[in-house]
Amino acid sequence: MKSIYLAKLLMIFVGISGCFSVLFGAWLAHGGQSLPLASQERLMSALTYQFFHTLALLLCITLFTLRKQMLIIAAGMLFAVGIVAFSGSLYIKTLFDVLSVGKLAPFGGLSFALAWLLLGFAGTKMFDHKLGN
């Protein structure tokens, strides 16, 4: 699959994830107040991770437009997988009481960690290029 096509799909994901983050955050602040405190805290963790990593994914797409490195697209894909696996599993576990889906959360967390590492490696390659290495 062409990397520019992947970047386009990731940008669509950013739009959807960002929109969901805002709308779900508003619901959680108002309608979600009737949920038990433990559920509210779990949902807030999922929302926080989703929002920050949606911004990180946007950074990846922006960097990719500047430097067409597959490491950056790979990092973006891992951020998207992390959002779905980590935040998505916490949402489903909490709101629909499907406990088995919670087993995906560690995989999502690992995806986030690997994405940050790939982004770091891609960044060093960008600076190496600027330094003439």
TrEMBL record:
UniProtKB keywords: Membrane, Transmembrane, Transmembrane helix
GO cellular component: plasma membrane
Membrane topology, from the record: Multi-pass membrane protein
Transmembrane annotation, as ranges: 9-29, 49-66, 71-92, 104-123
Pfam families in alphabetical order: DUF423
Subcellular location: Membrane
InterPro entries named in the record: DUF423
Family, similarity comment: Belongs to the UPF0382 family.
Protein name: Uncharacterized membrane protein YgdD, TMEM256/DUF423 family
Species of provenance: Colwellia chukchiensis
